[in-house]
Write a structure and sequence with these properties.
Layout lengths: L16 H15 L4 E6 L6 H14 L3 E6 L9 H11 L12 H13 L3 E6 L6 H12 L6 E7 L6 H13 L2 E5 L5 H12 L3 H4 L8 H12 L3 H9 L15 H7 L1 H7 L4 H13 L5 H8 L3 H13 L3 E3 L5 E3 L2 H9 L3 H17 L4 H11 L4 H15 L4 H12 L7 H16 L3 H12 L7 H17 L3 H12 L13 H16 L3 H13 L7 H16 L3 H17 L2 H4 L4 H12 L3 H14 L6 H17 L3 H18 L2 H19 L4 H15 L5 H16 L3 H9 L15 H14 L3 H18 L2 H17 L3 H18 L2 H19 L1 H18 L2 H25 L10 H10 L7 H11 L4 H8 L3 H15 L7 H12 L1
Parallel strand pairs: 1-4, 1-5, 2-3, 3-4
Antiparallel strand pairs: 6-7
Helix pairs in contact: 1-2, 4-5, 5-6, 7-9, 7-10, 9-10, 10-11, 13-14, 13-15, 13-16, 13-17, 14-15, 14-17, 17-18, 18-19, 19-20, 20-21, 21-22, 21-23, 22-23, 23-24, 23-25, 24-25, 25-26, 25-27, 26-27, 27-28, 27-30, 28-30, 30-31, 30-32, 31-32, 32-33, 32-34, 33-34, 34-35, 34-36, 35-36, 36-37, 36-38, ...
Length: about 950
Amino acid sequence: MPLISPSRFDGPLVGRDAESVRLEQAVSMLRSGHGAVVEIVGDPGMGKTSLLTALAALVSESGTRLARGHAVRGDAAPGQIFASAWEELLGPGTLDREAALDPQSARSLAAGWAVGAGGAVLLDDVQWCDPRSVEIAVGLVRNPVPGPFLLALAHRPRQTSPALLAALDDGVRIGTVTRIEAAPLAADALCELAVRWAGGSAARGAGTSGTAADEVCDHRLGEAAGGSPRNLRILLAGGWDPVLWPFQAGGDPGGLLREAAALTSELDLVSPEAGVVLRGAAILGDPFRPEDVTEVCGLPADRVLVALGELARADLVRARGDGEFVFRDPVLGHVAHEHSSFSEQSAGHRRALDLLVKREAAATAQARHAENLLGTASETAAPILARAAAEVVARDPAAAAHWSRLALEYIPHGGPARSELEILLCRALIAVGRLDEARTLVHRVLGHVADLPWQLALRAYGAAADVERLLCRYAEAEAIAATALSLLPDPGPGGSLPLEAVMMVYEYALVQTLNGDHVQAREMIRAAVDTTARPVHPTEVAIRCLALCQDSYLGDVETAVLAMRQCANAVDALADPQAGQSPEMFATLGIAELYLERFGDASRHLKRGLKVASGGTQLHVVLHLLLALASVDLFTGRLGTSTEWAVQAERLATAIGSEEGVGLAKAVRASAMIWTRGQRDVREILALAESAIADVESHRSWWALSALGLAAQVQLLGGDPEGALRTMLERADGQDVAAAQPALEPSLKGVMAMAALRCGDLAAARHWTEDAESAAARLALPGQTASAMRARAALHLADGRPELAMDLFERAADRFDRAGAPIQRAWTQAMGAAAADAVQGHDAALVWLDAASAAADALGALWVQEDTARARAELETGRSDGDADAGGGTDGDGTDGGDAARAQGNGPLGMLSDREREIAALAAEGMRSREIAQRLFLSPRTVEAHLGRVYRRLGVSSRGELPRIIGNQGEKSG
């Protein structure tokens, strides 16, 4: 009989590269005249048959004779699998069925093949072999046929004969058996299969939206399939929906059963009583206990245990070791559930629900059964679903949306109970990113808000403001929040605000924060925090974290540091389910720690936030967390992971329509790229930065300002200082981007100062350097202080005062190191090499460049490596210029002979090379370094290096003294 229908082998194997190589090696041995035994092992549905089919194709291509057999469960004909294999090749009736195959005759047939041109026998589902077939297989495994003969056995080890398992294990140990394990496929491989089978992503194949959120959906589908290709096909055919899973497999039970025909036939082979127990267990769901199965099925406990033993031997269920059982895999449990009759399901779920009610189980545990009773016991089921939705809205908003929507179908219109559930549904929809749907729903509630109690009205207004904020409709969000705040009761002297009021203040402050009005937001938060009486409630912890974020953003470092410790302790003390009620706390706390340069703590809290935010279902919170993580890793030199976070954030922001989120993600990505890819891709990187600017320049939010600041630094590094200044001063509706961000003002003003220097505007550079220093003194943060120092050092170098510049460059590098910003440290060292060369000489400059290059190499910062290489080349060029002009010799005192001769004939200028005299003369005329560089076709850095040597050799401290020396020398020459 055929091993597998050709229609099921649909293209190259996916995710089985290593396994395919081992199959090719076995066939290569066969072609070279050597035999082999190949064992393909794995759980049901993992692709053993596909591997065997691939092997069959390789054997056929080699021109070798091929026989294939498939064991059939329950077929006790002696030697059945081998007989069917030979008959497929030689034709029916070739073998004498009366004289069934035995080990000796089977070996003779195989040996006959090996003596000739060789051959291969491929056997599937060997676990169902009859005893004679097992005996034959054991003989061929323990004593392989010499010559070109290949035997391949695919089987499930849990159900295979112990004698054959022992023979195969011995063969693997001594090297006569090649074992290939069909392990669960990785998520990427399952997604590739889904594309092949469904014509798109797994998410689209399952009938969900084709957005960037499909990646999350595909991952969940891969987990549901358990790495099994067959389970993947079953779930796709059943209309898999991440909202329904794991409570249901999908919305198309008929499609699921059609694709699962092989599984249902396996289920039908068990005894009738075992079938009843199996379907009862499917109603309960994984995991299940024997005593619960007894209640649901109405069978005595001893008979249930006997049935479970039969099911375990058939590998349909497995014991967990704690008195509970699970199905072989979750998909099998769903197939068993759908394979039962409607009446069996209805009665079973009713009994299961009664059992859980009696135990006072959580509503979420009851919801699976309540959902199946809608339409038959709706009055009982709908309230359970509403309670279950309320229980899980923080940690699993997708399930909450599903259950609350179902419950609303059976709850009468009008009244607070329905409005409360509609608000809950709105919150769940917001969390999963379905903002337009949430907005429509909550505005419907607001249409009769006057009829609601004030607490419920506040919650409705809060949800409405939230959805408008997330849609970037800040004016509408602020108006709604202001209306709600007018409903707040007066707490009275020394009283505390109700929790609903605190939530409303929190929402309003979030709107103001994102809209750029940090001062007013902080005042509102402070008033609310001062009147709270529940400092450990998640909402109150969240509002305190937001207050901390405001303090740190506005540069109130002393207050922020004290509050940071309190907030971190409060957040760390919350269990995940508690923190999940207000997951924004992780974003605001992490961002505050980022501003305060506590990068390690920021990363820890942000990553925990990703975990708490329902594995990616609370999309607006996840976007904040991803952007913050990308920024943390950018500042700390983890450029690869920064890019990964930014890519995820950009996809998610695109999916939920956040233009500012897209812009900030692009800016972070461009910032990482300018460091890692350097000059070769500078045009592409600058284009990406410009795209980020275009996304955010019409907004005033802190996201927009952050994006502009990052983009400006990219433009500076990419050789566009004029563009950097335009970005900082014109692109955000004309406001000063640096001044609008107090926590980052020193570093941003430092960027502006360096851009001005490169544009030759020393006056502006001095002005912005002074601003940076003033802001740094106020903040007293190592990284921000280092940025101001570096700007001043660059200004000193431009003014011809390299000794002052070198000291500041060195101190700035040290502070960047203490702040945990290694790339900024390396860049600072590279910049400072010219000053070191001017003050301490060539060797000292090389020490600076070596340190910068080593750090850049460890960080993967190609831009810094290129910069240090250019600086090194310029130093060497300057040195060789001096050597060439010297005439190649030295006097006894170590003075270059040519220098001495020129000094005697030409005065002090005789100590300079031709290039140095040329640059010194232009500097004495008042030309700036940039202008000299343009005149002589040099880089500004080369000009600065030459000037440093000029000052050292002439014994002057700045270019201001050059006219006197150059002029005096000219008069003497005249």
